[in-house]
Fold these 2 entries.
Entry 1:
Amino acid sequence: DILSTLQNVFGHSQFLEGQETVLQRVLAGESTLFVSATGGGKSLCFQLPSCHLKGSILVISPLLSLIQDQLEHMPGGVAAATLNSTQSYEEYQRVVEGLRAGKIDILFIAPERLMTDSFLSLASFLPPFSLACVDEAHCLSEWAHNFRPSYSRLNMLIRQHLKIPTILALTATATKVMERDIRDALSIPEEGTVRVGIVRPNLFLSVSREQSKRSALVQLLREDKCFSKGSVIVYCQLRSECEEVAKLLSYHKLSADFYHAGRPHKDRQRVQNKFFDGKLRIVVATVAFGMGIDKRDVQGVIHFSCPDSIESYVQEIGRAGRDGREAFCHLFYDFDDFERKKSYAYSDGIERMNV
Ligand SMILES: Nc1ncnc2c1ncn2[C@@H]1O[C@H](COP(=O)(O)OP(=O)(O)OP(=O)(O)O)[C@@H](O)[C@H]1O
């Protein structure tokens, strides 16, 4: 049964909230949406079925870095692989052979790759997949109409072309509207949603309204007992703001650097590595620093600017306290910033920022 698989293969004594319900549904062939906090143990919900289902599991994941992270953290006993455009021909062939021989339990793939003719024709020569899992499923709702239209075809391809009967969608971030979008996009029935607390109980949240956010931030990072030690991410809206704030913090002798998508890759990598190794205490970043970054001992997340939406806020504070220890999240409330975001939110008809 699944409890003994959990204990013997994965080495955990009991299920985390929601996992057992999700697993029972998935193993019974019922499509499911699982909404749970970052670090809530969602990956287990596609890993464990690989020990019970006949046929490989297909996991669709939006970022190569996330896929890499998943592969690195795969428990022993579960054979996982990926197909992507950076692979050598030999590597690709090895994975294809593994799939043909039924030796790969989980195949990770980016949605764009799944939609290529080459993958779809390859799939018709492979043994059938038993389950499709759409990881970070909020992207379906957020990106479907923007720059990744490929998401809207996913359902049809999974069900009709690949003939996979069961879909598991995973996300840490979903409002009711987003939940419905995801369910509609993947034909998951309403009763197929399993939702557990999306903000982990070890996170302590605070908000303040300041005369000067800059000096308040410096003070928080230098003197406050929650933020003056340990790794901290400071989220800013603009790239220029990240640079300016990092400079300010360095001026005040704080160990800080900035990260945003406009910085050269090697500099971003350097900042990320130093932060991971504990050689850099504070990263001042745009939301580009987030998905796929799994540093377990981040002790604080500070929103210097207003997040884009409630979902983004929940996602971003989820970077803190992944090791289960107490962690702190502070938001600097700025009336104008909030009003602006609110008007965007309502103008595109999406349920956001009800503040
Ligand atoms: N039943 C369990 N008991 C104890 N630990 C567990 C259990 N299930 C999963 N974990 C652990 O919890 C940690 C977080 O799990 P996981 O990475 O799957 O979270 P997640 O929900 O996928 O997070 P994210 O939203 O960031 O992708 C991992 O170290 C995993 O080994």
Entry 2:
Amino acid sequence: MELTIENLSKRYGQNWALRQLSLRCGPGMLGLVGPNGAGKTTLMRMIATLLTPTEGTILWNGQDIRTHGAALRQVLGYLPQDFGVYPEFTGRQFLRYLAAMKGLPRSLAYRRVDEVLEMVQVEQVADRKLPTYSGGMKQRIGIAQALLNDPELLIVDEPTVGLDPAERVRFRTLLASLTSNRIIILSTHIISDVEAVANRLLILQEGQVLADTPPQALLAHATGKVWSVTTNQTTALQLQASYQASTMVNQMDGVTLRLISATRPHEAAIEVSPSLEEAYLLATGRQEVSAREEDK
Ligand SMILES: Nc1ncnc2c1ncn2[C@@H]1O[C@H](COP(=O)(O)OP(=O)(O)OP(=O)(O)O)[C@@H](O)[C@H]1O
């Protein structure tokens, strides 16, 4: 299974939501990260054949999805950002309904619904009405419907928005269990969602690819550029204004900052191992500063 994207662009009116994106992707999880408006949803909707590109091509196993969209849709699972459920249904009824919509014969549909309910671990509440579900459980039903056809390509758009931290961790574990032998594209602006799960990160910013990299390489690039310093309130505020700070924590003996800087930002600063989030901030930071300057 291979997804190939060549020079893909999408324009809405005068605005380019995505510019000249090229990508070749095999089994594993691709973490699509970037701030709001970066073009993540636009890209995913084009891959899912829900949106027509302005320019460029998307190939699934070498076939253009403009002309062979049906072949892709057969092996596609998609969880959109605004996944809605029907309130009058239980989880099981809802999935059976969607299985029927997808054309699964009844006996196969019933069996497959039981399988996916088990995979996403909601069997225990499967016969409760959907409005009684927590946000995390609803997202599990969302993933369950995307898994009904055992997809080779699973696209999940910002699935952790609105979930509490414990639900987020559970959801992340669930996705990690699904990575073998399929392509998963997961979009998020929360880096920890893809940390330890994605084998590749595609960082988008303003419709363009800022980096296409294994997480380890992004981390390696940030090594030697993250610092920790504990200082008084005044100096901390000065440092925060001059450097990009990833965290700022009040301690008994002052304020501890973690700063991202190519050079030692303060004589008392010590070098620390970067987190993936800090590596991401470093990759996107320069553009954020220049964007802020343009805003002035
Ligand atoms: N239907 C539309 N009409 C006009 N502009 C749009 C439309 N959909 C998206 N855009 C614009 O295209 C750009 C990319 O949007 P997109 O939703 O793909 O980004 P995103 O990275 O998914 O952001 P978010 O995390 O907020 O969903 C944004 O500037 C957005 O305002």
